[in-house]
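Hi C.,

You asked whether I'd gotten around to modeling the 223-residue construct. I have! Everything is below, sequence then structure, no commentary in between.
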Amino acid sequence: YKAIPITWGDENSVERSLIDIADLYNDGGTMLNQAGHDSLASKIIEVAQIANVARTSVTDLGTWGQGDACHTWYDSGELNLSTGTLVEYVEYTKNRHGLQFPSKGEWVHILNPFSESRTLYISYVVSPGSERIHSRAKIVVESPGSDINALVDTVAFDKLTDIVTPRTIPVGSLAPGSHYVWVRPENDAPEPFYLTGLTIATNQYKPHEYGFLSAYWTSEGGV
């Protein structure tokens, strides 16, 4: 690597650079905050546009094995599923969208278009850090061939993050046909439970903290 000598105090110094980007980090200076993530994302897009990087289409990538049915409104804000009348569609932070549910619970209608049972994945907002800020919720589906009853936790697996992010996890098997997915908040935290997407796919794909992640079962029997 080519080292460039920098003098502290001038306009191009390390000190000045650290001051300029301080607002992009958390209080401890160890992790990017939401502004930092947004800034990094915009720079990546800018570099890709300058380099004229061709965007790979979904067709080029192929399907998820035997196919999938994905419904997400986290980024787009476009909801194409019907819901119960008491479900609130909210922008819980800038350009981030979720469904909020009443204490007694409400439903989201979804169709498994395949001829066999598939895994139902849910996407929802997790709390930053080690404390639960967003309420947990029970996900219930009571349909012929489907019996889902999962308590979903909202504490981040990455205890160091201070970013409110979506997580995607499998909650059970969904038979072919029409289903009502009931979401019943536990109301055990200051902030509501936000649902940001539903996906029907095979069980061979493992989600990650910021997308797809394998099921996490709590001592209380939840996911």
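If it helps when you're writing up: The beta strands are 69-72, 88-93, 96-100, 106-112, 118-126, 137-143, 146-152, 165-174, 177-185, 194-201.

Thanks,
B.
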